[in-house]
Predict the structure.
Amino acid sequence: MRYLVLPLTLAVLCSSSTLDAQQVMQRSFDPTTSLMMMEIGAIAESEEGSDDVTFGTVLPQDVRPEPNRSLDLRQGDAVLMMNGERIRSISKLRELYDGLTEGDEVKLALKRDERRFLVAFAKGSADTDSGVFVSRRPGGGPGG
């Protein structure tokens, strides 16, 4: 399967009720080395030629899509397995992820420091959006 390589951007604007400044986090997305998992608000990444797949970007819990806000995910978590199959490249993760349909269960075996653990979620619908834009304002959730 061939993929059209398009540069995509993930932008997150955050601010706190105690701070007036906004935090802007912008990340370019390269489909050859990254996989955006919109339902959990994370981007899995791998450097070309590397056997390691990690979460390079993870949205803050309070702005992740429901119902996956409570998943224990952090930037830097290594993806070891998906649905029982070893992950050694972003292309393997993409192959497995793309082979699922909306509502199928995704089980990821992750490693953080020396701790290994599982997270599970349902695969969301295919979305044609090219990225995510989240805005946090003082005193409320996204956009409010």
